Amino acid sequence: MKDYFERSYAQESDKNDKIYEYRERFYLKDDEYYMDGNSCGLCSKDAEETLERVLSEWKKYGIDCWTKPEHQLFLYQDYLGELMAPIINAKASEVTIHSSTTINIHTAIGTFYKPTKEKFKILVDDINFPTDRYAIDSQIRLKGLNPEDCVKVVESRDGKMIFEEDFIEAMTEDVAIIFLPSVLYRSGQLVGMEKITKVAKERGIIIGWDLCHSVGVVPHDFNALQPDFAVFCTYKYLNGGPGSPAGLYINEKHFNKEPGLAGWHGNKKETQFDLKHTFESANNAGGWQTGTQHVLSMAPLEGSLKMINEMGVGILREKSLMLTKYMMDLVDEKLVKYGFEIGNPREDEIRGGHVALEHEEAMRINEALKANKVIPDFRFPNVIRLAPVPLYVSYEDVYDVIEIIEKIMINKEYEKYSKKRGIVA
């Protein structure tokens, strides 16, 4: 198509976009290009509405807000779990909204890690987001063991991707748990969850997944996959707001297990206010709740999840793949000559929701982008992550961002910025 690399193609694509109208439900700035939704999604009017409703319920009822509203706040985590379940195609009883991703890793590993002399290793990769490793090492130490002895690390061949066959080879008889990301936070690789999960189950190994960089933009089918557990944040593609409580999936076959970090909100609701000193775990994922739920932080997620369920993750994935392909094609056409490389997989079946743009001057280019009203993020040492989130990013936005990067390189605008990284990248 002769005008593929021209603005007219982007504009025509936007006219044919089946979900373009959803942009109007987000707080977008007219003079800004938001490409950081894989780190913190934008605020929607839907999220604002449910937050304001919950605030009004608190104002109206006081302590009775726990039980008087239609969706009583005492069971709010169960209601949000019901809204979340279709997004990963799991049973509502298997999903709860709870605490943070890191705490959910702690509670999951604390539940499933029962080391013996024969089976005591936890299998991980070496390029995952570091909080996953921090939590695993901590849980091993709590068992009185040494992470150097108990963590089995499969190193990436190229520092960007992980290869399923390497993990299958590493599933030896001493491996008790495997914990991996569904999408790598730097390179955007979508990992072969089906193959790894299948072999892990065949070998009697507990398998868990970190969905932080896939949930809400990549479809998951947990009814088919049947992993043992999964964790995920809700402030990226799910647009729950900064620091919104995380998600936890526990396969129903484990509901009889004692949660690794028991707390009173994981107790059976029927006996919770009996206030016994003997814990009675709820027979669902809610049994892994600990303290009182963070209701005001949860409320925006209700509106966002309802919006996503209106269209389904499948259509979001379809548009995400088209947006990221268009961005990569524009990079090839306009930016490669300035030293840029694409660090993420190009194949649809193994690409997540963002483009990893690599350059030796990435840190300074990232700063120049922000000065030009583009909101990206930088990952040390050389990656600019650009996430064209399908709910609110247009094809013309993608076109404009690549044009801006080309302008920055032609004028060498990045040279005025320091090579020192800020506290928050």
Can you summarize this structure?
The chain has 425 residues and is of the alpha/beta class. The protein has helices spanning 7-15, 45-61, 76-88, 101-112, 130-142, 147-150, 164-170, 193-202, 222-225, 295-311, 313-334, 362-371, 395-411, and strands at residues 33-34, 95-97, 121-125, 151-154, 175-181, 206-210, 229-232, 247-250, 341-342, 355-358, 374-375, 377-379, 383-386. Helices cover 36% and strands 12% of the residues.
Description:
The structure is a single chain. The protein has 425 residues and is an alpha/beta fold. It folds into 2 domains: 7-31 and 312-416, Aspartate Aminotransferase, domain 1 (Alpha-Beta Complex), CATH 3.90.1150.10; 48-311, Type I PLP-dependent aspartate aminotransferase-like (Major domain) (Aspartate Aminotransferase, domain 2), CATH 3.40.640.10. It is built from 13 helices and 13 strands. The strands form 3 sheets. The protein has a 7-stranded mixed sheet with strand order 2-8-7-6-5-3-4, sandwiched between helices. A 4-stranded antiparallel sheet has the order 9-10-13-12, with helices on one face. Helix 9 (222-225) links the parallel strand 6 (206-210) and strand 7 (229-232).
